[in-house]
Design goal:
Mean pLDDT: 91
Radius of gyration: 19 Å
Low-confidence stretches: none
Oligomer: single chain
Number of strands: 15
Largest sheet: 9 strands, mixed
Distance between the termini: 42 Å
Structural class: mainly beta
Shape: globular
């Protein structure tokens, strides 16, 4: 199902039409500093945030995030303001996966392109989200599996090393990746080209219909599992409607936030 990602979290399909609804009393912001001429955020009660910012060199941009109860530990930096290179961590601090994400708090992360040796920010109460762009919804893992082509492990080195491995494996239904990382590290794209759009396969755990306060539009707010907990935004006309046990498979904007703009924000650890 292809949709406009703004509508997936209840905003209007057009950015300008959405901007026109925003009024200063509804926005939060930070004073001008050495890095940013301004950062302002609209934090909707439903869990969707719009961030508008201008860097000190006059570059303007925006980002969109979605947050819910999901929490993970991460470390990362920004390749450009508004797009962060984030490593999701296991409980022992080892890296689980690395992703590119839109963030609504660009002042919270250092910016150093693709320099992995630069400083990083670390957060133990981080909110990872996903906003549907072009996805399919399956009623169950069994229904999802019927449409997939397994990868043969029969003659693989891994199978030869461990006979207990299955002869066929599936990618998913709990999986997430940022294809743009390959382009960036392969030299086919620069930091300014970085996109937070990713591949997502997730199993729905809890599904709630919420209302975007700015527009009055409803959307599905889903507590989902893509290998770690995330909050997923789906448009209200999603068919079939998501339910606990459904599988969502396709493209989505990946998002992250420290929760800086929210009442339950916790200071990052060193």
């Amino acid at each position: 199902m292809e949709n406009n990602y703004l509508e997936a979290v209840g905003f209007l399909a057009d950015w300008q039409a959405t901007y026109d609804l925003l009024t200063p009393p509804a926005m939060m912001g930070l004073p001008r500093n050495d890095q940013f001429n301004h950062i302002v955020v609209y934090a909707d009660d439903s869990g969707a945030n719009i961030c508008l910012f201008e860097t000190a060199d006059g570059t303007s941009s925006e980002s969109l995030t979605v947050a819910g109860p999901a929490r993970v530990s991460v470390e990362g930096w920004q390749v450009v303001p508004g797009v962060a290179h984030v490593s999701v961590l296991y409980e022992d601090g080892e890296e689980m996966t690395r992703l590119l994400m839109w963030v609504d708090d660009p002042h919270m992360y250092p910016v150093h392109g693709l320099d992995a040796d630069g400083p990083v920010a670390r957060f133990h109460d981080y909110r990872v989200g996903a906003i549907a762009v072009n996805v399919e919804v399956f009623d169950s893992e069994e229904e999802w599996k019927k449409t997939q082509t397994p990868i043969s492990m029969k003659d693989s080195p891994a199978k030869r090393m461990d006979e207990d491995l299955p002869e066929e494996v599936y990618i998913g239904p709990r999986f997430v990746a940022s294809p743009w990382l390959f382009a960036l590290y392969g030299g086919e794209a620069g930091p300014e080209d970085a996109s937070p759009i990713g591949m997502l396969k997730a199993v729905c755990n809890e599904v709630t219909i919420v209302t975007n306060r700015l527009t009055g539009n409803q959307w599905y707010k889903v507590n989902a599992d893509c290998g770690f907990p995330i909050t997923l935004g789906l448009p209200i006309d999603t068919t079939p409607a998501p339910q606990p046990g459904s599988v969502v498979d396709g493209k989505a904007f990946l998002t992250g936030t420290t929760g800086f703009w929210l009442s339950d924000y916790q200071e990052p650890y060193a």
